[in-house]
Design brief:
Layout (H helix, E strand, L loop, with lengths): L19 H20 L13 H28 L7 E2 L9 H18 L13 H24 L1 E2 L2 H31 L5 E6 L2 H13 L5 E7 L19 E3 L4 H8 L3 E4 L7 H10 L6 E4 L11 E6 L2 E6 L7 H35 L5 E7 L5 E7 L10 H8 L19 H6 L7 H7 L3 E3 L6 H4 L15 E3 L12 H14 L2 H16 L7
Parallel strand pairs: 3-4, 3-6, 4-5, 6-7, 12-13
Antiparallel strand pairs: 1-2, 8-9, 10-11
């Protein structure tokens, strides 16, 4: 696309020199020309209503944050110090203040900090951990600043007031945001409170992204259309393969398709068809503040902490760190496993005795079931479970798998398993048969969180990618167990396990354990 560029001589008379207004008008015409190149006629956005669910949701969050901070800060003050207790100054000549004044200032400073750290931005609300991290980071920095100011001004603040208000306020803030996130997730599953997305790129890349976004409506992206290069005009509706997403344009009619579909977000799924100049022109054609441009790189199953964007020579280069399986992270994970499994064994010991008695009294055979599984780096170990099947049930496995047609798949699962004992089905539904594996965790054969340990016969069916599951210790629970459990296909299960292996962190383990407890309490129909 050619742009006309006129140079005005510096020796021209003042009356003929271009003023600022004509230059702004020229820039506006250039932007309109960019739109025209992609759309033909320029769509009129003046009557298009701006989506307001972001604003309404953010205002509700602001109100909740404010009420939470009032309740926590004044509650701690009244419980610890009373309502009108004066603040002590080391310098006796200074004017004394009441703790009520300190509380009011703390609340408004806290609210301002939450805003400055972007905790209510539409890009972080409702998905991922960025919202929680921003709240935690802003809160810790605020109280660090309060401590510094108190030291410099020589204010003798009560330690209990600070040491209780900080963690309690942070915990209740995070909980209130989590409650809002549950509501927002329910709204998004019904198709509301989501960005309306137009996919732009090759058919294969657009189809792949549409399927993945469709699996996770809670992420807040609802695909409403696609623009595919070389799409032939047709009177009948065309959809992306195996989806209900309509193809409503080509790369030459993106902005027209944007208006037609009512989308507010353009996601470029592949860059081969769109050179940098076309992408830049597309960004110029979007309405600022209402329409957004997102570029989806061809990187899948890579976690945020491993991705760093760095602008170099005008290019937004994405640096992807190599996954690390050694060092301090492994030590921290092992320490967490020892402390967690030890405490759980101590707390759950009465329940374990009851469960063991039920197994022994309702069927003939040993209480515990020991099975050889493959662990870290392919090492074999014996995994413990409460016995949920008849004795010698393993001898019938091959025939049952062959009967249901899954003998050639690595995930050896039998639907409506006839080998279960009377209490075996209930133990499996609520994952109670897994509790003895806490002993495996304490011994070091397993971890609290990790890929599910599998039999040697299943491992023999692995491809090269699936073998990366063995780079970390197997776990009692894992990402695929809390993301669908037995309803997931083997391909989805291995994808989630590989994502965990290459992106695991202690924070991620805690989140998975929390989701595991929720799945145990309300297992649904997919538990086995």
């Amino acid at each position: 696309m050619a742009f006309e560029h006129r140079v005005t001589s510096q020796t021209a008379p003042p009356s003929t020199r271009p003023t600022r207004a004509p230059r702004i008008a020229t820039a506006a015409k250039t932007a309109q020309a960019a739109r025209a190149a992609l759309t033909g006629p320029i769509p009129d956005f003046s009557q298009a209503p701006a989506p307001d669910w972001h604003r309404a949701y953010a205002m509700r969050v602001v109100l909740t944050d404010f009420l939470v901070l009032i309740w926590v800060v004044f509650g701690v003050q009244i419980a610890w110090l009373g309502f009108s207790t004066p603040v002590n100054f080391s310098n006796a000549t200074m004017t004394t203040l009441s703790y009520s004044t300190i509380s009011v200032v703390t609340i408004f400073a806290w609210m301002l900090t939450l805003r400055l750290y972007g905790t209510r931005e539409s890009r972080v609300l409702g998905t991922g951990t960025a919202e929680y991290k921003a709240i935690t980071d802003g809160t810790l920095r605020l109280f660090g600043m309060i401590a510094i100011i108190a030291f410099l001004v020589k204010i003798d603040l009560a330690r209990g007031y600070i040491l209780i208000a900080l963690p309690l306020g942070l915990a209740v803030l995070l909980f209130s945001r989590w409650i809002w996130r549950q509501w927002l997730g329910a709204e998004r599953r019904m198709g509301r409170c989501s960005s309306q997305v137009l996919l732009v790129g090759s058919q294969a890349s657009a189809t792949h992204l549409a399927r993945e976004l469709g699996k996770q409506p809670e992420s807040g992206y609802r695909v409403v259309g696609a623009c595919i290069p070389g799409t032939a005009p047709s009177k009948t509706a065309q959809n992306l393969p195996d989806t209900d997403i309509p193809v409503i344009g080509t790369l030459d009619t993106i902005l027209v398709a944007l208006t037609k579909s009512g989308a507010d977000t353009v996601i470029i799924t592949s860059a081969d068809e769109l050179p940098p100049e076309r992408v830049r022109e597309l960004s110029w054609g979007l309405e600022p503040g209402r329409q957004h441009l997102v570029v989806a790189p061809s990187l899948t199953d890579i976690g945020g902490p491993r991705i760093h964007t760095r602008p170099v020579a005008g290019f937004p280069l994405i640096h992807v760190e190599t996954p690390s399986f050694d060092g301090g992270k492994r030590f921290a994970k092992r320490a967490f496993d020892i402390v967690g499994s030890g405490l759980l064994l101590l707390i759950l010991s009465p329940a374990l005795i009851v469960l063991a008695s039920l197994v022994a009294l309702t069927s003939v055979g040993p209480v515990f079931y020991r099975q050889e599984r493959v662990g870290l780096n392919g090492q074999l170990f014996h995994m413990l479970k409460f016995r949920t099947m008849r004795v010698n049930a393993d001898d019938q496995l091959a025939a049952l798998l062959k009967e249901q047609g899954t003998a050639d798949r690595p995930l050896f699962k039998v639907r409506n398993d006839p080998r279960l004992t009377r209490v075996g089905g209930a133990l499996r539904k609520y994952s109670l048969d897994e509790f003895p594996q806490l002993i495996n965790v304490l011994k070091g054969d397993m971890s609290l969180v990790g890929p599910r340990p599998q039999r040697e016969g299943e491992v023999n069916l692995y491809d090269s990618a699936a073998h990366r599951r063995l780079f970390v210790k197997p776990g009692m629970s894992g990402l695929w167990q809390v993301s669908g459990r037995s309803n997931l296909s083997w391909e989805d299960s291995i994808r989630l396990d590989l994502y965990y292996v290459e992106n695991w962190s202690l924070t991620g383990d805690i989140v998975i354990l929390w989701r595991t407890m929720r799945a145990v309490v309300a297992p649904g129909g997919d538990a086995v």
